[in-house]
Amino acid sequence: MHAVKKQAVFAKQHGLFRAASASNVVSNLLAVMLNLDHCSDNTSYDSLPQVSRVDYFISHSWSCPCWMKSLAFCHFLNFDLAIASSCMACLLAVLILFLHAGSFSGVAMQPQGLLYGCLLCWPVAVFLAVYLFAHIGARTTFWFDRICVNQIDETVKAQTLQAIPAFVAQSTQMLVLWDDTYFDRLWCQYELSVHAKTAASPLAMKLVPMWISLWTLSWISLYTMVNFLCLGQTSSQLDLESRRTLFTSMVDASFVPPFVYLLTAFPFSWFCIQKLKSHKLMLDQMAHFDLRNAKCSVESDRKIIEEQVLQLFDEALEPPLSVAFDESDMFEPLEHADSRFDLNENSNESVVLLDTLREIRHITSYPTSSEIIDQFNSYVKGPLRDSVVNSMGKEEFISFKLCVVVSFPWWFQGLISVLGCDAHADCETSAVYGGYQSVEVYMATNAVMRLFLGPFVNALSYPLMLRTNKLVGTLVSDTYVHLILGSFCSAMVAFLLDHLGLHLCGMLVVVVTKYSHV
Fold this sequence. Notes:
- This protein has 21 helices and 7 strands.
- By secondary structure, the protein is mostly helical.
- Helix 13 crosses helix 20.
């Protein structure tokens, strides 16, 4: 820790600590992806402001494709804002349609193409635009190696790399852009361990996996296109003879052939397998981590990093703790006792000099270099791995919030069905077909089915199918067999959950239209 403080003072004196904006980071990643050489001059570096603190230190592996890191970075910055913007855009569209038509019954008379454009395409387009571009103009500051390190002056570059622990310590949080190679890279492990050593809380680390942005964009786009297949479809008249026939006709009207579930389950099962494997690989890499075996692109950097680790974890290089005793202070109240302890935070002197320590270490109780590296390894295997598990969960975990968001197109489609009265253009007709007593009761019941039961069951299917594929993976080891069995089991889960939703909707319709105490 004392070495980090010295590095921070040196970096401040020489103006080495620079801050980049979100736009700087994204544009630089895209430039690398397009093979545009920005290292020929120092314009970008010189234009960055000198700071004493940034909001996020970005830790990543250059083995990962830059376009994936750009999308993951956008997901981290813009995801919540994209959700709010999409919902607001949808509500705005509903308001405009209502004012234009004069009533909700009038909205149902509007062309289906207009409803789909306003209530499906518009909110999805807003979501994608905010998701990809909302970071432009944001004031959040970042430390990103390719921008914040002088790429021309080798002396300044070396000094900056030496001061990386200070940059990590003086960042409010660490943003980890994780891919399969991340926990196998020496520099990445070093940055994480410095953060673990200096951070006030494990919550100060934000870990964003590469798959999360691809998952979000792929499924929202796919579901948007699938929902266009429903354009112009109308609901059929239900059999109102009895409660049994009403329930049966309600379920049959929404029946989906089993092969459709298998087709949609196949790509999802493939994703599940990749997600489970990569997540397990990450945890295994950390559980068996050894600094001596970590990969380093430039082998000469290994000695530099090992030296930094020794300085960071070596207790012999910490300043001494001194306690001043005075007879007059023997009966001093306890609340004033802390003032007698001096941690020498501003002192530049350690217990012994580094050169002297190397000569006498073998006759002292201080740990050897090998033991210090083992302490570093223990940090990665223990507290650091635990903080990653707390942040991302285990391999079978997926955020339910994410599952809800990728189901947005189903919510928008449900809203079209509710406001469009199931494409009949006449809400009275739709109410009569369903046996409802009034249009108001019909629209309220339809809203519960289309905006709550259906989308909620759909969102619930993702974590269940992921856990199902995890179970299949414990039984079979072959990837192809896993994919086939996983797809079949995922299709069964989706089929059962979908029919659970249909039966709930059927019971709701029966209760509303033919209610009796019995």
